[in-house]
Amino acid sequence: MPVVSVPSDQRQFPRVPIAYRVKVVTGDQILAFPSAINISLGGILVGGTERLPLGSACGVAILLEEAEAGKRIVTRGTVLRADADGMAIAFSRDLEPTSLDALRALIRSLNPEADQVFEADIKACG
């Protein structure tokens, strides 16, 4: 499966920096990342040295503030890229509405302007 790099100015959803811990789960392993690099409504980029093979389906748990023990956002995705910059995971297009709402709220809390593109897409389709 070829990996296509999309220039940041052509991304469908703007990315915002994020520093929450992330766990990535596949059928037989759990990878823990001390901090993600960035996130958008389309996916997440995690750092660290551990990688999954390209195309791997996985679960993604974004562990929110320590003050909110047990609070997390859980999504599903696919590994699109793994290189020196990190491991990029695209979120599944068929996310549960609660997961999508939680992602939107998180991104909006980090950068209120970041999901304006998403809002414009909804109005255009709607």
UniProtKB/TrEMBL annotation:
Organism expressing this protein natively: Geothrix oryzae
Full protein name: PilZ domain-containing protein
PilZ domain span: 9-108
A Pfam entry, by short name: PilZ
SUPFAM superfamilies: PilZ domain-like (SSF141371)
